[in-house]
Amino acid sequence: MILNIQGVRKQFGGLVAVDDFSLSMEKGELVGLIGPNGAGKTTVFNVVTGVYAPTRGAVSLDGTDITGMRPDLVTRLGIARTFQNIRLFARMSVIENILVSLHWRLKANVFDAFFLDRKYRHEEEAMRDTALRLLARVNLDKLTDSQAGSLPYGSQRRLEICRALATEPNLLLLDEPAAGMNPAESIELMRFIKKIQRDFGLTILLIEHQMRVVMGISERIVVLDHGVVISRGTPEEVSRDPKVIQAYLGVTEHA
Amino acid sequence: MPISMFLQHLANAISLGSLYSLVAIGYTMVYGILRLINFAHGDLLMLAAYVVYYGQGIFHLPWLISIVVSILITTGLGIVVERSAYRPLRDSPRTTILISAIGVSFLIENLGLVLFGGRPQPFPLPRFLDTGSATQIGSIAIENITFAIPVVTLLLLYALLYIINKTKTGMAMRAVARDFDTARLMGIDVNWIVAATFALGSALAAVGGIMWSMKFPQINPLMGMMPGMKCFIAAVFGGIGNVSGAVVGGFILGVAEIMIVAFLPAISGYRDAFAFIILIGTLLLRPTGLIGEKVGEKV
Amino acid sequence: MELSRTLGRRALVLLGIILVVAWANGDLKLIGIPGWGSYTVRIINLCAINAVLAMSMNLVNGFTGQFSLGHAGFMALGAYVTALLTISPATKEMLFFMVPLWKPLQNLTLPFAPVLVLSGLVTGLFSLVVGVPALRLRGDYLGIATLGFAEIIRLVLQNVRRLTNGALGLKGVPPVVNLWWTLGAAALTYFALRNLLASSYGRAFKSIRENETAAQAMGIDLFKHKLLSFFISSFLAGVGGGLLASLLTTIDPVMFKFPLTFQVLLIVVLGGMGSLSGSVLAAAIVTYLMEFLRIVEEPHYLSFMTIRGIPGLRMVIFSLALVMVVIFYPRGLMGDNEITLAGTGALLKKLLPKRRVAA
Does residue B287 sit in helix, strand or coil? Predict the structure, then answer.
């Protein structure tokens, strides 16, 4: 079992964002986390990656307890994420965005950097190689020196995913990667996600607000509403669950 | 310490605390609305004092008129500063507008140096405060102004709280402070409310500056710098964005400053450092201040 | 063949620079060529020191995006360490007439180079004490916290008379500093920081500036990197302070109040908060203007009348300039860009009139 979230509750003062959330994921799975806006999906991500410490409950990765661990340490253990509102390093170039993800593995120290000595230059070259190869795999290698903030929206999304991949994760958390895309673009993106899952051997937890989009590629779905899990199962089971329909449409289907 | 000296110190402490409160309110109100530390606020204190000085000295205005003119001019300047140096930057990163505020503060101070000269000038006191206008309590004499300051402060505070809590403008101010964008969407003329907030805060600073000069009758163009910083610290200490917090913070800071030096004269050289130590302590241990509310960041 | 030609050219350029500096510094007096004149040299010295100070502030404020207003405090530390370790024992005896200097320092003097390094290190050490608590804060809170710390440092320096002679200050700092020291320090600072910023560490700093949350999610240890940036910046501020002490030969606590930080901040904003060469350029411009505008402040005695100077007008102009720049040209002179040979070439081509080919 690669990820185990147990009974997580996250409370902000009087507001309970997430209550009693549990989820286990096995290696290689692609699980969808859906629910109406404000359901608490991103909060779950934030708890898993350590941005928030849960009020109650625990998170473990490959058996190691990572509850409330600092986000950069969580990343070093193999979990990477993207953000709902794109958080690229806008004023830095495309390749620099990727190179940042490789920084924590750097062995050279500051003094090496001051003098740009051979040891440092060696590592820098290796890092650039890795970055370029990654960018090629997501078709962004023609734009390496462009400013990240000036890319078209779809490319920015791909860059963000590529940046997360650069940390060499085992588990990838994608937060509404298709936000702001039209149906055609969304389907394209989903195909892309499926592809990188295969190519990189990833386990993926995917937040999506649009049900239809995520149904196609998820093996399992968890539905969240007002911070509480209201349904679990395969895409077919979940789409027929009246509780889910009510949560999204606000009205029950009268047969 | 003999009780008479203690009372004297206490009276001074309460006076100073009141002055700090008055000026701290301006800082906290502006921060509540714009999330901006208006560095230039403390310098309005100085300006108010000089308007009275010149009003009396050059224009020979009667004392009361000088005060009114001073308050009006200072309030006006506060609004002008907002309009010209802060409003254009409303959508800029917060540090940019902070740099602008620092620049404005230095501009006002240096303009003061150029226009008024660097030498301290004596502040013209009204007849009822002339030498000899002290009240005897036992063996000590406490100047009347020392009593007047807290009284005036309390009156102004009462008026301010009334405005904030019981008038429509005040409600709009609270709305804008709570959520700027939503308030705007609700049809509140945010620019007008911001201007009104600056006006109120500046007016209070003007009164504070005049009373300060009545208590410490030597004025110079840089007189607002240190008190300004201390008042801001008071606002943070009490809970930035919260008017009651500013009052509490101002009082505590003023009282502490005087009483600590009174009881431990050996460390009087560090008098100004207390404020900064309190600032750092607050920021690290309880950043919302004594009475403040938490403002989180959405990830 | 190509390589040796490039190397040869570079060596020639370097030799040329060395000769010019030697001349300006007055070192060529020995062979009969007078220097540039002490007034000009002094300005250049000041420019170079301001460049060091501006680049160091830019590292934290511009490149790492941490709004620190504590520079004056660190400069003060560096200045005092340098002063205490270079002033002769006899002068120290004379200076500390009210409260005698702490025994171990009384007869201690060291050569200038190690003293500068020590100034930097001591300042760097204090920056850790400041940084560990302060860097937990963000934005304007960090700004006022660092401002607070700087004031506390200054007030401590003013009160610990056994070490610093308190408000009396220290005079008689040996004027060791000359163009070699200042320009050397500026050049070293520039190249070291340029390398650092081009490296992975530089990218880490910039990512913190761009988006802290994302940087952390990509494995960057925020605190460690903020502290690193802060330490390096403060080290350089300390060195700058030491150079300043040697240049001015007199220091006192009043010099290191907030307006000093303001001056450096002005230079950084003017030059562009993401540009190292911008800081150097702005340092030169501002330092020169500060001197030039002195003319406006001093009275002028013409044969038929006296034009009264307006003291304080310089600072009015500069404060106004800062506000204008921040509102209308927030990116400053260089924005995020650096001065490069290629860029300068392109700029010149645009500015110079095009040549017409005769028909």
Answer: coil
For residue range A8-21, list pLDDT tens digits in order: 999 988 889 999 99
| Number of domains within chain C | 2
- In sequence order, which residues have a C-beta less than 8 Å from that of residue A104 and are 6 or more positions away? A72, A75, A76, A167, C218, C219, C220, C221
Domain span including residue C117:
40-283
Q: What is the pLDDT of residues B49-87, one digit of tens each?
A: 999 998 888 888 888 888 999 999 999 999 999 999 999
Question: Do the Cβ atoms of A89 and C336 come within 8 Å?
Answer: no
List strands edge to edge, sheet with A15-25: A15-25, A3-12, A56-61, A64-65
The pLDDT tens digits for A142-185 are 888 999 999 998 899 999 999 999 999 999 999 999 888 888 88
| CB-CB under 8 Å, C219 with A72 | yes
In a mutational test of the B interface, the residue from C262, C324, C327 whose CB has the highest number of chain B CBs within 10 Å is: C327
Q: Does B287 touch chain C (CB under 8 A)?
A: yes
Q: Would you give the DSSP letter of residue C306?
A: E
Amino acid letter, residue A31 = V
What pLDDT was estimated at residue C1? 55
pLDDT tens digits, residue range C6-33? Answer: 778 888 888 888 888 887 777 766 666 6
* Residue C132 contacts B where some CB pair is shorter than 8 Å: no
Q: How many domains does one find in chain B?
A: 1
Q: What angle do CA B187, B189, B192 make, to 5 degrees?
A: 165
ipTM over 0.95: no
Instruction: Say if residue C116 is in the same domain as residue C218.
Output: yes
- Is residue C152, in this structure, part of any structural domain at all? yes
Give the side-chain half-sphere CA count within 13 A for C31. Answer: 5
Among C249, C283, C317, the domain boundary falls at C283
